[in-house]
Amino acid sequence: MLKELVRDIPDFPKKGIVFKDITPLFLNPSSLKEIVSKISDHYANQKIDILVGAEARGFLIGPAVAINLNAGFVPVRKPGKLPYETASTTYELEYGTDTLEIHKDAVKADDNVLMIDDLLATGGTMAASCKLVESLGGKITGCAFIIELGFLNGRDLLSKYDVFSLIQY
Fold first, then answer.
1. Which helix or strand (DSSP H or E) is residue 99 part of?
2. Residue ranges per domain, the chain?
3. Which of 10, 31, 65, 87 is the most exposed place for a label (fewest CB within 10 A)?
4. Tens-digit pLDDT profile for residues 75-88
5. Which residues 6+ apart lie within 8 Å of 52 measured at CB?
6. Is 39-168 a domain of CATH 3.40.50.2020?
7. Annotated active-site positions, please?
8. pLDDT digit string (tens) for 90-100?
9. Which segments of the chain does DSSP mark as H helices, in order?
10. Sign of the CA dihedral 7, 18, 161, 109?
């Protein structure tokens, strides 16, 4: 049911890319509930202290899953978006680099952390987010996604973690 609601947008954000639009999944109350329930159920038997959501779509489902798991929620953001002292990491993109930041006090040593985002493509953003959390002493329990583009081999960068995705292409 979930996969049927994902809308393909050809040539977005640039020619040759087929963007997987999850907006229809969020518009439908039963699919939104299914997304949150299935991710929550997958990690229900693990002790999760914090969910870390990647900007920006990780913010959309992360808090709901955090509530179900009785955990807190922490955003990972682009530079200059967080108001307190931050830790940051810079990582390689296909053409250039990008940087992510997290509040320095958001994750404590030995916190069990579930990472969450909407899409696993090449894995670079999630790998950088995991590195950032681990630099603060957090232990990554898993990396959860709504969609995984398996042909881009993003799991390879995340091979030391439990990777869970609801929809695979």
1. strand 96-103
2. 39-168
3. 10
4. 999 999 999 999 99
5. 58, 62, 73, 74, 75, 76, 102, 106, 107, 113, 114, 115, 116, 129, 133, 138
6. yes
7. 57, 94
8. 998 767 899 99
9. 2-5, 23-27, 29-42, 58-68, 124-135
10. negative
